[in-house]
Design brief:
This protein is 28% helix and 25% strand. By secondary structure, it is α+β, with helices and mostly antiparallel strands. Strands 20-15-14-23-24-35-34-31 form an 8-stranded mixed beta sheet, sandwiched between helices. A hairpin with a 5-residue loop joins β52 and β53. α11 runs parallel beside α16, α16 runs antiparallel to α20 and α16 packs across α21. It is globular.
Length: 1245
């Protein structure tokens, strides 16, 4: 692979700058930074950098084309693909998808990214046209009763596949011809079950290429993994970006004397690939991946490392502990991509993050000033940002910045403009402080700027805690490896906050992504889906597959010139427990398992069980293990090594100057050093500033920087001067505690998702986690499911009133009178104790939807229930854990107890119930640990004081909202709406503009009903807190303070306050939506949304399945409503169609939008969807829905949306309307057609 006497170039072409690291023939190292786009001076930044370095080193004038014979290799990472995706500037393309699923990728997983935004913004799909391919296959099922006579084939995974409809070639050609006539020549193809049956996709590709398409990407080639939605997104990305990449590569190659130049490109997985194999779907993280390789190869020794890459608009964090951590499904620019990628977590906090003061709280981001206009100091009229705060504190020195600002791009950073802007913000903050409290010290300008720095640091600590603690790692044991332009200013403070003792900053930290390219290896990956059990019968077949993939990788790398001794292969099986969706990529253990026949490559079972135990806290003995995919990662060892050492110095480090910089507590004299003046062995005590050409490093007080023999900087972090934080309100600490409280709830949620095994919790994310004070009042609620907001507070407080709660107890509850909402939502409550306190000092709780808890209908969502006993197992104050012992026998007895009632069954899925309950207990234990950790840092009195301050802040935000409303609307507002059965929800709101309070009076609401539309009081509270948060319009803590200004009046025994025995399952999922519609109507916030969750359950005595169907969102004063999305009180994800058909005896015949159903107006309402499911065996089906009689209202003269419809379609038989709420036993071949806002279905005769 090596050619002596030639140049080696490693390049990171970023969005703003292109960084170049070069090794010259004489061994000299060159580093260069250029603007990525500078058309007046050069056509291509990487080529220009290569030209300049070669010209200077060879001392000859060079023009393009450059002499490629002088170059050993070029390695490059590029944001060309990322930027094209972010800016939607890729190739015009079309999507070919199985007929009936034309809008599948538009609908996605049905969820909305920001649950409190009225204007639901989801990035547009990448395709311009859709071709519905008439073809259909389905998987063979032993329980199928359709009597299929179609051709049966064996897929790539060895699964049997029925070809229900062969490819309609003539229709396909006609449709593709129309696409070509529009000038579109790039096509993405994704067909149902093509991960295993590839024939139809391959036929589409052949036809399309023959017709003149230039790029045809197949999902079965790009990423042959089950799940059509992420696979479809991935193949669209490939078709959208690969032509752009090819165009860029062609242009790049044209500047060299030979097109055969040895160029390798960095992929998202951290490996290099030949120029002809670089494609769109694996290029998204091309640049950042180089940085991960760079810090992994330079800073990892005996401690795991956290990579901290802080840029202008965001910060990337990642982890390395001897091997790269990969994910196989991620979201970039709103597009879910299914491809191997380094696990890089991004938080919207960077140097350009904007600063706000809202209702008494310091807020940093997520909005960014960007490059234009940029921060205030950029002289373009931009807002205050984190960069401005550092400048104001004397941590950035303008004289060492390039003079590229101002109209003539020849001025330095504008310190005066920054200080004036901070003076204005300081006055605003001090006015608020003086109006809220008396006797409080007002803040200085520097204290305000320092406050924003501290809040920004805490926001960047959150993803690092999540990356480590959620996975069972101790954050304190890590080294913080800092790179990127802005990270050095924050590294010491972040490391100290996280308990880390060492920061590492590489000498090339400003260009570490480019340097990482030089250190990277060449990668060739081969993967094959299998869908095989892992047992002694299947292991020989798996070994054959592994051998074939190894041979493919070795051959590919050999063809690139690698010798056998420089090729290694890593083998992975993508393994999961049967009936779960969480697969783990597992390498074989070298330790033999004497109790199990192992693969010749090692013991994959041992690895899987050990990883599952570590990640999720348990294993599932006796459960089959499935291998979804076999993956081999071929590695061509080619990374260079940098042996350059820095000479030691016997002189003290030269001080460039001394400046005054501000730290917590005041100004300190701070020595300034230039990196070029420092040598091996130099020790620099903080406070100090080290300035490099591309970055500024802040060494904080009580920290010590040392220069290593390689010229890198290691900073040892001291404990720092203890900062007294008292119980009195401090606006800066308020923001920090808000982050910490919310982080507790979020980490609980991640633990619950990871440790649960059911589809509902792990995949549909139908759960919520929260923290409560010693009075049971809500402190923080992670924004999971809106319908759970505020409702769990009633559940906690009911237990406090009712039973004695001891350390080691966990309480299980779901009864509506005990703060529950409906029986499948099981709430687990755990008290938090600390030594010397006999009463709980906090509570943690979570609520998760279980797929079945018994009752008259599989799925425990009956349409015909008339009492609580029809709906499943009931828990009021059940001790799930007593004295630290999980009460499995007792909880099993209760879960099975509904069978004592006529027509009822006990739970139909006991194993999953118990596993998910254990996961809920584990999530609470994580919450307890985090609360205790917070108390150990600050003390109980301070933590509880800030709990109260946080609650008061939410109260202030709501009071301000109500005052603003009273200024533009009458003091007394009213609205009403009807349920389909005629029941009225009536609301009258009277606002006190002086106090900023309101009475929500539901007098006139209909009495409780015999059906299940009754909504417990907790649901109304959830609907109100959700609506108020939406109306506020910006982030506020979700806690009991939101309801403090609200006086709630609900008539007893009305539909919103039923008696203890009333059926309530529909109240939670239907009436809740109508309450929100009434509130939004009253405040004139937006038109009605679909007002329903379209609940569908089916099953038999062996299983129950529950799902919800999206619809249209209401339009607003300045926006159109989003189509095909979940709205208001729910935000659960849908099950992927391939998983849906793989696990259950059904076929998804159609899932598409219904244009024109959202209601016309200046701003149109979002359209509903049609979802048609065909059943393959006898099952009991239940539908629970609304808006089948009364249309969703329009606002301000806009038209209402259409009503929905539930139809049963019998093969060659009549179409039968099921009505809004009904159940039926369906026979094989019957289809359910649900329209969430519908056009009447007309079936072809």
């Amino acid at each position: 692979m090596s050619s002596k006497g030639k140049f080696q170039f490693s390049i990171d072409r970023g969005g703003t700058f292109t960084d170049i690291y070069a090794k010259c023939p004489n061994g000299k190292t060159r580093v260069m930074k250029l603007l990525s786009v500078d058309p007046q001076n050069y056509p291509d930044a990487p080529r220009e950098g290569i030209r300049r370095i070669m010209e200077e080193e060879l001392n000859i004038k060079m023009n393009e084309p450059l002499d490629s014979s002088q170059i050993e290799f070029i390695r490059m990472g590029t944001t060309v693909a990322t930027n094209a995706l972010l800016e939607r500037k890729g190739e015009r393309m079309a999507l070919a998808v199985t007929e009936g699923l034309r809008d599948l990728l538009f609908i996605g997983n049905q969820s909305r990214p920001k649950i409190f935004d009225f204007k639901i913004e989801i990035p547009d799909v990448l395709y311009e046209e859709v071709v519905e391919v008439r073809e259909r296959v389905c998987l063979h099922r032993n329980d199928c009763q359709l009597g299929l006579n179609s051709e049966t084939r064996v897929g790539q995974t060895l699964e049997k596949v029925h070809v229900l409809t062969t490819l309609d070639v003539e229709k396909l050609k006609a449709d593709l011809k129309k696409v070509l006539e529009r000038g579109i020549t790039s096509l993405a193809v994704v067909l149902m079950h093509s991960y295993t049956f590839t024939e139809h996709e391959e036929a589409v590709q052949k036809i399309a290429m023959e017709m003149g398409f230039k790029q045809v990407s197949l999902s079965s080639e790009v990423m042959p993994m089950v799940k059509i939605v992420p696979r479809g997104f991935t193949v669209c990305v490939d078709a959208y970006l690969t032509p752009c990449i090819k165009d860029y590569i062609t242009g790049f190659q044209s500047g060299f004397s030979s097109r055969d130049i040895n160029a390798l490109f960095m992929q998202s997985d951290g490996g290099l690939t030949p120029i002809d194999k670089f494609n769109g779907s694996r290029a998204i993280l091309s640049g950042p991946a180089g940085g991960v390789v760079g810090y992994a190869m330079t800073s990892f020794e005996d401690q795991p490392v956290i990579g901290f890459d802080m840029g202008g608009t965001s910060t990337d964090v990642s982890r390395y502990d001897g091997e790269y951590e990969h994910v196989f499904e991620s979201t970039t620019a709103g597009v879910t991509i299914q491809a191997p990628q380094l696990d890089i977590n991004t938080v919207a906090a960077g140097g350009g993050s904007m600063l706000f003061f809202r209702s008494g709280m310091f807020v940093v981001g997520p909005e960014s000033a960007g490059a234009h206009p940029g921060p205030t100091c950029y002289r373009k009229g931009g807002p205050l940002t984190v960069t401005d705060a550092n400048l104001c504190l004397g941590r950035l020195l303008p004289e060492y910045f390039p003079k590229i600002f101002g109209p003539g791009e020849n001025q330095c950073l504008d310190v005066d403009a920054t200080r004036k802007a901070f003076e204005k913000l300081r006055d605003e903050i001090n006015y608020f402080i003086s109006s809220e409290t008396t006797g409080r010290d007002l803040l200085t300008l520097e204290e305000v700027a320092m406050g924003f720095i501290n809040v920004a640091n805490e926001s960047m600590c959150r993803p690092i805690r999540s990356l480590t603690q959620v996975r069972g790692h101790d954050t304190r044991r890590h080294v913080l490896s800092c790179f990127g332009g802005a990270g050095g200013q924050h590294a010491c403070a972040i490391a100290r906050s996280l308990g880390m003792t060492r920061v590492f900053i590489h000498k090339y930290s400003g260009i570490l992504s480019a340097y990482g390219m030089a250190l990277a290896d060449v990668i060739h990956e081969a993967q094959r889906p299998t869908a095989s059990l892992y047992n002694k019968e299947t292991i020989p077949t798996l070994d054959v597959t592994i051998d074939e993939l190894i041979a493919e990788c070795v051959q590919a790398l050999s063809d690139q010139g690698f010798s056998p001794e420089n090729i290694k292969t890593d083998i992975y099986l993508n393994m999961r427990y049967a009936k779960t969706g969480c697969a783990l990529m597992c390498q074989p253990s070298t330790v033999k398992n004497l109790d199990f026949v192992t693969s010749k490559f090692g013991d994959f079972l041992q690895t899987f069980q050990a990883r599952y135990k570590k990640e999720f806290g348990f294993t599932i003995p006796g459960r089959d293990i499935i291998v979804d995919d076999v993956r081999v990662r071929g590695i061509g060892l080619s990374g260079i090594e940098d042996h350059a050492l820095v000479a030691p110095s016997d002189k003290p480090p030269r001080v460039e100057k001394v400046v005054s910089s501000y730290f917590d507590g005041g100004h300190l004299e701070t020595r300034v050093h230039l990196m070029e003046d420092l040598s091996y062995g130099h020790v620099i005590h903080g406070p100090a500033i080290i300035i490099d050409k591309n970055s500024t490093i802040l060494v904080e007080p009580d920290c010590k920087a040392e220069m290593t023999k390689k010229g890198d900087v290691t900073i040892m972090i001291g404990k720092g001067k203890p900062k007294h934080i008292g119980k009195e309100l401090d606006a800066i600490q308020l923001s920090i505690f808000s982050h910490r409280f919310m982080s507790i709830a979020e980490q609980m949620g991640r633990i619950l998702q990871r440790t649960a095994i059911s589809t509902n919790i792990k995949e549909r994310l139908d759960f919520s986690c929260a923290l409560f004070g010693p009075d049971g009042g809500l402190v923080s609620n992670a924004p999971h499911i809106p319908g759970h907001l505020g409702a769990m507070q009633d559940a906690v407080q009911y237990q406090m009133r009712t039973i004695e709660i001891n350390e080691g107890d966990c309480i299980l509850s779901n009864h509506p009178s005990a703060g529950g909402v409906h029986l499948p939502d099981l709430t687990v409550i755990t008290p938090v104790f600390i030594p010397e306190h006999t009463k709980p000092i906090f509570f943690v709780a979570n609520r998760g939807h279980h797929a079945d808890v018994g009752g008259i209908m599989p799925g425990s969502m009956p349409s015909n229930s008339t009492s609580i006993n029809d709906e499943g197992a009931v828990f009021k104050s059940f001790k799930l854990v007593k004295d630290g012992i999980f009460q499995e026998n007792d909880v099993t007895a209760v879960l099975l107890s509904p069978r004592k009632f006529p027509g009822c069954s006990g739970t139909r899925n006991l194993h999953d119930n118990l596993a998910d309950l254990r996961a809920q207990v584990a999530a609470n234990q994580k919450g307890i640990h985090l609360v205790q950790e917070l108390i150990s840092c600050y003390g109980l009195e301070v933590v509880q004081a800030y709990m109260a301050h946080i609650q008061h802040h939410a109260e202030v935000a709501v009071r301000n909202l109500l005052r603003e409303v009273s200024m533009t609307m009458d003091g007394v507002l009213s609205a009403s709406d009807k349920m389909d059965d005629g029941s009225v929800i009536n609301l009258r709101v009277e606002i006190d503009s002086q106090e900023g309070s309101a009475t929500f009076d539901f007098e006139g609401t209909s009495p409780m009903v015999i059906n299940n539309l009754n909504a417990p009081r907790a649901i109304t509270k959830s609907a109100i807190i959700y609506s108020l948060r939406c109306l506020v319009g910006y982030d506020i803590p979700l806690n009991q303070g939101c309801l403090a200004p609200i006086h709630l009046q609900i008539p007893k025994w009305s539909i919103l306050d039923p008696d203890d025995d009333a059926a309530v399952v529909g109240g939670n999922v239907l009436t809740s939506q109508r309450i929100v519609d009434v509130i939004m109507k009253l405040f004139k916030a937006c038109a009605a949304s679909q007002g329903c969750m379209n609940n569908t359950t089916f099953g038999d005595e062996s299983f129950g399945y529950y799902d919800t169907v999206a619809g249209g969102a209401g339009a607003g004063p300045t926006w159109h409503g989003r189509s095909g999305v979940h709205t208001h009180m729910t935000n659960t994800r849908s099950t992927d169609p391939e998983i849906f058909e793989k696990r259950y005896p059904v076929l998804l015949k159609s899932f598409r939008l219904l244009p024109g159903t959202g209601g016309e107006g200046r701003y149109k309402g979002g359209d509903g969807v049609l979802r048609e499911i065909l059943f393959r065996k006898n099952l009991t089906l239940s539908v629970l829905s609304e808006r089948r009689v009364f249309q969703p209202y329009g606002a301000e003269g806009g038209e209402p949306g259409s009503c929905g419809e539930n139809l049963l379609l019998r093969h060659k038989g009549p179409i039968v309307n099921m009505g809004a709420k009904n159940f039926v036993v369906v026979n094989p071949g019957v289809s359910l057609s649900i329209t969430s806002q519908g056009q009447r279905l007309i079936r072809d005769s």
